[in-house]
Task: inverse folding
C-alpha cells in the first residue's frame, strides 16, 4: 500500500485498522499535523516519533515542529531521540566518504554516542507494543561516546580501507562547495555542526538496555558485521 507525505489521499487507507503507528519523515519532509489528527480519527491510539538528539542546539525547526505536533495530540505518544546512526557509514550519507577515504564533518574531536539502527528499531518496537512508554522522550546512545576519528579508525580496522577524518570547517566548505552546493547553505550547515560540537561530548545513557533488556551494539561490532557483509567492497 502506497504512503506519501505529500499526498494526503494516501493517508487514510494506510491508517485503516491501525492502533499504533511509527512516524518518521525523510530529511527535509515535515510531519504534517493533519496526519496525526487523521490518525486519531481513524482509531490510532499510540504513536512513536523518530526524532534526533541535539535538535534544539542545531536549530532543526522541522523536527522541533514534529515533536510539538506529537505532544499536542490526544494520542499516547513516545519520542525517540537517537544519536548518529552507525548505518550512516555503510548505507547512508557517509558511505561515499568512507569509500573515498575521507570523512569530512565540522565537529572536531567531539564525541558522539553512535547508535545502531537495530537498537533504535528495538526501542521503537517496545514503545509501540507495550504499555508504560507514554509521554516519554527516550534519549538513545550506544555503549560508548566516540569521536569521528575513533569511528574512522574502527571502520579502517574492520574494512581494511584507510579512512581518515577531517573535522575542520574550512575543509568541509571546500568539499561541499566542490560538489556544487550553495555556499550559503554550506556555511549554515557549518554553524549548526559547530553549535553541536560546542555542546560537548555526548552522554552515554542506559535507555536501550532499560527499554529492550539487552545491551546496545558497539560501533566496533557494527563495523565488523558491515565489513563481513562487504558493505565497503569496491563497487
Result:
Amino acid at each position: 500500500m502506497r504512503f506519501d507525505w505529500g499526498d494526503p489521499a494516501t493517508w487514510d487507507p494506510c491508517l485503516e485498522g491501525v492502533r499504533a503507528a511509527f512516524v518518521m519523515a525523510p530529511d527535509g519532509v515535515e510531519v504534517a499535523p493533519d496526519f496525526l489528527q487523521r490518525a486519531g480519527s481513524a482509531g490510532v491510539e499510540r504513536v512513536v516519533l523518530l526524532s534526533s538528539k541535539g535538535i534544539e542546539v542545531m536549530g532543526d525547526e522541522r523536527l522541533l515542529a514534529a515533536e510539538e505536533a506529537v505532544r499536542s495530540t490526544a494520542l499516547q505518544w513516545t519520542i525517540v531521540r537517537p544519536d548518529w546512526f552507525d548505518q550512516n557509514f555503510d548505507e547512508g550519507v557517509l558511505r561515499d566518504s568512507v569509500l573515498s577515504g575521507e570523512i569530512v564533518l565540522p565537529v572536531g574531536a567531539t564525541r558522539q554516542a553512535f547508535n545502531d539502527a537495530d537498537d533504535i528499531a528495538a526501542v521503537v518496537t517496545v514503545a509501540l507494543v507495550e504499555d508504560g512508554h507514554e509521554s516519554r522522550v527516550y534519549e538513545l546512545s550506544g555503549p560508548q561516546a566516540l569521536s569521528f576519528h575513533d569511528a574512522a579508525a574502527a571502520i579502517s580496522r574492520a574494512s581494511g580501507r584507510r579512512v581518515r577524518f577531517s573535522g575542520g570547517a574550512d575543509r568541509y566548505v571546500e568539499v561541499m562547495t566542490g560538489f556544487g552546493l550553495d555556499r550559503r547553505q554550506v556555511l549554515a550547515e557549518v554553524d549548526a555542526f559547530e553549535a553541536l560540537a560546542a555542546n560537548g561530548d555526548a552522554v552515554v545513557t542506559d535507555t536501550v538496555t532499560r527499554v529492550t533488556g539487552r545491551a546496545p551494539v558497539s560501533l566496533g561490532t557494527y563495523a565488523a558485521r558491515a565489513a563481513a557483509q562487504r558493505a565497503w567492497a569496491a563497487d
Remarks:
- The domain at 86-114+142-202+218-235 is CATH 3.90.25.10 (UDP-galactose 4-epimerase; domain 1).
- Residues 80 and 138 are 5 Å apart (CA to CA).
